[in-house]
Design a protein that fits this description.
- This protein is an all-alpha fold.
- It has one domain (45-260).
- Helices cover 87% and strands 0% of the residues.
- It has helices at 2-37, 44-54, 59-81, 90-128, 131-137, 142-181, 185-195, 198-224, 229-261, 264-277.
- Helix 4 runs antiparallel to helix 6.
Length: 278
């Protein structure tokens, strides 16, 4: 009876140890990527190619998602506010929601689904066919050659995609507000500009640097840890998408809390005044 009772505890301990080992391996890979950033002979050509493949080609997906998100958000918001006679405030709510949360998070989830799966499947295929070992045998560093360009592409590309997502989402909400509820586009944009502050925009975009880094690192780690042939590549692809999505949502909460504690508005106002004086 005691042995049966100890089995769940043993399984839980084994799972905890496995998670700890994976977290340690992930941290070592992230540290190796950081060290590779300072080494000479940076693979610029590969970095540009990965930026085009992971960021530029994700733009249509992000734009379509953001457009319809802004449209449905304006539709639902205006429908609800009409009951209270507050329909003119649609632009304020839509703009603030998209700038601070929906734009960054949805862009990260779309890029995580597309880029994370692509990175994991590509590196996973290279791992199971021993191409990564061949790179080591030739004296090259797989982290600098494979990991660093992909991580930088997602880290730098996601903030740019988020700016597009925010702009397109606000425009989508404006189109629905004007066509469905007769709210003038000029008044809609005026309410958005009055409510959404530069600090809100900075807070929304700043989080995406962390999101992009996490998506790239998760995809690279899962891909390089792939085992089991083609079946393992499929599992790694699914795992990368799931982990990247969860990491984005969890990180969003803590980053939002952190940015609320920081004097973001004061810093942005000081920078704006400095640039205006210059």
């Amino acid at each position: 009876m005691s042995e049966l009772a100890a089995q769940p505890v043993t399984k839980l301990g084994d799972r905890a140890l496995r998670y700890a080992e994976e977290f340690g391996a992930f941290a070592l890979l992230a540290l190796a990527a950081l060290r590779a950033l300072g080494r000479p002979r940076f693979p610029w050509r590969e970095g540009i190619a990965q930026f085009e493949a992971l960021a530029v080609r994700s733009a249509p997906l992000v734009i379509v998602t953001s457009m319809f998100t802004g449209m449905v958000l304006a539709l639902q918001t205006a429908y609800s506010l009409t009951r209270f006679g507050a329909k003119p405030y649609v632009g304020s709510i839509v703009g603030l929601a998209i700038v601070r949360e929906l734009g960054p998070v949805l862009a990260a989830l779309m890029v995580g689904g597309r880029a994370g799966a692509g990175i994991a499947s590509e590196l996973g295929s290279m791992q199971v066919t021993e191409q990564v070992d061949a790179i080591r045998a030739m004296g090259a560093d797989p982290v600098q050659k494979l990991v660093l360009p992909r991580v930088l592409a997602t880290t730098l590309g996601l903030p740019l995609l988020t700016i597009f997502a925010i702009s397109v989402g606000i425009v989508g909400g404006m189109l629905v507000a004007e066509a469905q509820y007769g709210i003038a586009s000029g008044f809609y944009l005026q309410t958005v500009s009055h409510v959404v502050r530069p600090s809100d925009f900075v807070s929304g975009v700043a989080k995406t640097f962390v999101f992009g880094w996490a998506i790239g690192m998760v995809g690279c780690y899962v891909g390089l840890a792939t085992e089991g042939g083609t079946v393992g590549v499929g599992r790694a692809t699914t795992r990368a998408v799931v982990i990247a999505s969860i990491v984005v949502l969890v990180a969003d909460f803590f980053l939002t809390k952190l940015l609320m504690l920081l004097p973001t508005e004061r810093l942005v106002s000081a920078v704006v005044r400095l640039l205006g004086g210059a």
